[in-house]
Write a structure and sequence with these properties.
By secondary structure, the protein is an alpha/beta fold. Helices cover about 55% and strands about 5% of the residues. Strands 2-1-3-5-4 form a 5-stranded mixed β-sheet.
Length: about 500
Amino acid sequence: MASPAPTPNGRQSRPWLWAGALVVTAISAGAVAAILGPLRDPDLYWHIRLGNELLDGISIYDAGRDWSFAPVQYTWVSTQWIVEILFAWLNDLAGFSGLIAYRTVTTILTLLTLGLVIFRNTRVWAAVVVFPLPAATLFIFAQERPQQVSFIMLPLVGYWWLQATRDAKAPRWWLLLIISAVWANCHGLWVLLPIVLGLALVGRLMDHGRKDPALKPLVLGVFASVVGGCITPVGPLNLLAPIRFAGTTAHIKEWDPTNFIFPASYGLSAMLLLLVIAWARGRVRPARSEILLVAVMAIMAAAASRNLCPAVLVLAPVLAWRLSVAFAGPRSRPLPEGLAPVVKPATFVVGLVGLVLAAGAVALSVPLPVGTQPVSLVKQIAASEGENRVLNSYNAGGLVLWFARPEVSKSFVQVGIDGRADRYGAAYIDDYLAMQRGKPGWEATVARLNPNVALLANEDALVPLLQSRGWQVIGREAEYVLMTPNGVQR
């Protein structure tokens, strides 16, 4: 990069390190406390069921095949199977509380990774200023999802970019191969590893030219991370998964372009503002590689709101370093004599208290409070004999698949749709949601699907339309209605 990093040497060069660690630990404890509560992700349930099928010995190519009656060719294969098996194991071990524990532990690990990278070779005050921004964003996005694994890794990816562009250091290619191979079987954001390393490669080429000796290890790193990402059940097709999935997300709210008025975007907005101020204030102009990374992350975050958290986690170590360089002042003053002996043990005490309280809150949690989801309606479907083809709202699919799974159901229950958007394809999702919203052609879609029971949200326009065709409401719960043709009881 254009200017050398501050590299403190010795313990005395960073007298405020433990004071900063104390502040960050307190913020982390607050963030972890804030995410405790009921289950958040409606897709969790089908992830658990898929993990159970894999543990039961069903091939990954057949798992989930018979869940839906959608007239769509089945070509879907999970590439998140490692986390789905973990979900199933945690559920067997501790029920849904095990999944709340997963959300809590992965959030703690993300905060730990974040703290480790932003304090490294930066001013303590800069790390303390930066840390709350990604922590607040993480609080909003933390769920029982495979993406939590990606959140743990992304601060490291940002730090590796920083090392590559600032210090001409790249991780060993074999390490990247292993990491990307494991990560690619946990969550799709593994693609940010080769992308960010590729941006470092392009950035060094822009900053230092083709004779830069750091280019070769970066080329090897990018290649190794791409190869590792292909070591999945779908092989090299995994490289196309983000493109294929993006084509099915037009109706999924979290994939809408980011509205920067809403609180979820405030962390990124503040980070971009601080970067611009640091660039303007700094004694040395920012390198083109840095501008390139920030621009790409900003565009990625603006394209879809779910990309906000990945973007801030990647940018956090970059911002902490840039602030340290731009506002490098005189050597830090020593800690006050009365504070120095207590700040380190206080950090451990606050951290320990936070962990104990988090563990207690997880143990006492109510993962699925009564009346918040239509569980009783789904169990009513499961209690009826025969075959049940459920015309369900999009977000209710996972709930039906879990609470009416074969192990607890008297009937063979299938859904019209669930959270596996790439299993159904854009055309089917368009038709299905148009039917749910009562758009012209809804009758033809209902006739084609031929359901014998419906679980829909009260607000769905399809509810009164079905009633006009003789369907009757036989149950209500948590803003959902259970309907059957002619009021047949299920």
